[in-house]
Amino acid sequence: MEREPFPLLPPDPPGRRLDPDRLDLKGMEETELAAFCGELGEPPYRGRQLFAWIYGRGECAFERMTDLSKEFRRKLSERARVGFLAPARSEEAGDGTRKYAWELAGGARVESVKIPMPRAEGPARWAFCLSTQAGCAMGCAFCLTGRMGLVRDLSAGEIAEQFLAARRGLGPEERFHNIVFMGMGEPLENFGPSAAAARILSHPRAGGVSARRLTVSTVGVASRLAEFARAVPGVGLAVSLHAADDATRGRLVPVNRKWGLDALLRACRELPLPERRRVTFEYVLLQGVNDAPGDARRLAARLRGIRCKVNLLPWNPFPGAPFERPSPERVEAFRRELVRAGLTATVRQSKGLPIRAACGQLADDERLAGRARKAPAPVSARG
User: Fold this and answer.
1) Catalytic residue status for 129
2) What is the largest CA-CA distance in the chain?
3) What is the pLDDT at residue 73?
4) Are 229 and 306 found together in one domain?
5) What is the pLDDT of residue 9?
6) Is there a single domain that holds both residue 26 and residue 174?
7) Does residue 32 have an active-site annotation?
8) Sign of the four-CA dihedral 268, 269, 273, 275
9) Residue 362 DSSP SS3
10) Does 219 fall in a domain?
């Protein structure tokens, strides 16, 4: 495991990042940038140029936007800024996974993760897992982030900047292959900024990824699933289930008390999915809690008729949690039951475990220590 000072230098003087008298353009979509340029007396195409500079090239300094006139750059400097996240630290695991910690305005911290993708030859390709909130209010029993509670929502600019800053550290032939909103927070509870950031990062001029390679994960905010799918057409949706019955899921995922499995799966059936797209159902496997063959059969029955695939995640441990990670043999037996029932099911390989960068492990240690929260009550196991 490698832990080092943050390797990515801020692209502009830090003072401008927090200047409250200037409008932050980071997080504005192309149409909003065009409207802002109109207020400055500039034609709409200037908005497209700004969008390409801010997101396509990751530039934060107006003086380096060389195809803009000096007069326009002067007006921009007087009225606006391009925010960026203050770097805190990064850590790299032996498997190549790198975790970034970013300091937000106000002192909170948020984490995101760069994950290597299997590749036989050629330049490295990466997946990027970013956060939409500092902390999380969902309180899932098996997730360390939930123990922080919700600190605050991130802006669209703060969400997008996690990706842009990490991209600035890539080699000339390296690139990100896909982006997942699976870090800290619940994207659908920070709906507007999450949707805006997803549209920005999947825009052809942003240099990110296409919508089909961007996935947004939700713990199951059933009332907003279809709305999000319409707000970001083509984006992938991953819905966290973690149990096949309401009693177990209610203990693991408190939001199930508001939207039970029937309501959640009804919303998934009604999603306006493009052709050949499927909902991904995520299922964290907990030894003796939800990983028996009978659980798999009940899950398959629940999902019958939904165009979907199931992504199984053996639980990623953290200190003080009342769970155990199931054995590979038990995980494979669960997967085989799903396949036997006609479902597509895969097992996600945990990356970055030694640096606590795997799913459900992201957290601000200082925040956790300050809250001194008690561990959740054990969830009773079934045979």
Assistant:
1) no
2) 72
3) 95
4) yes
5) 56
6) no
7) no
8) positive
9) coil
10) yes
* Contact assessment for residue 92 and residue 1, using Cβ atoms and an 8 Å cutoff: yes
Q: Are residues 92 and 66 in the same domain?
A: no
Q: Is residue 5 part of a domain?
A: no
pTM for the complete prediction? 0.92
Q: Check whether residue 138 and residue 246 sit in a common domain.
A: yes
Which amino acid would we find at residue 378? P
How many folded domains does the chain comprise? Answer: 2
H or E segment at 70? helix 70-79
Catalytic residue among 60, 129, 143, 359: 359
* Token pair belonging to 351: 């990356």
Q: Is the pLDDT of residue 29 over 70?
A: yes
**Domain end marker among 81, 111, 129:** 81
pLDDT computed for residue 368 by the predictor:
81
Structural domain containing residue 24:
14-81
Q: Which of 63, 81, 99 is the last residue of a domain?
A: 81
In a domain, 4, yes or no: no
Over residues 326-378, the pLDDT tens digits come to 999 999 999 999 999 999 999 999 999 999 999 999 998 888 877 654 445 55
Catalytic residue (choose from 29, 30, 111, 186): 111
How far, in Å, CA of 312 to CA of 242, rounded? 9
Phi then psi dihedrals of residue 285, to 5 deg: -90, 125
What is the per-residue pLDDT across 31-70, written as a single tens digit (0 to 9) for each? 999 999 999 999 999 999 999 999 999 998 999 999 999 9
Structure tokens at 68: 């803009």
Average pLDDT over residues 81-103: 91
